[in-house]
Amino acid sequence: MIRINDNYLNLQDSYLFSTIAKKVAEFSKNNPDKRIIKLGIGDVTRPIVPKVIEAMHKAVDEMGNPETFKGYGPEQGYEFLREKIVKYDFESRGVNIDPEEIFVSDGAKSDCGNIGDILDIGNKVAITDPVYPVYLDTNVMAGRSGTYNKETGMYENIVYIPVTSKNNFIPECPKEKVDMIYLCLPNNPTGTTLTKEELKKWVDYAKENNSIILFDAAYEKFIHNDKLPHSIYEVEGAKEVAIEFRSFSKTAGFTGVRCAYTVVPKVLMGYDKQGNKVSLNKLWNRRHSTKTNGVSYIVQRAAEAVYSDEGQKQIMENIEYYMENARIIKNGLKEAGYTVFGGEDSPYVWLKVPEGLTSWEFFDKLLEEANVVGTPGSGFGPSGEGYFRLTAFGTKENTVEAIERIKKMKI
Ligand code: MLT
Question: In terms of CB atoms within 10 Å, which end of the chain has fewer, N or C?
Answer without folding.
Answer: N
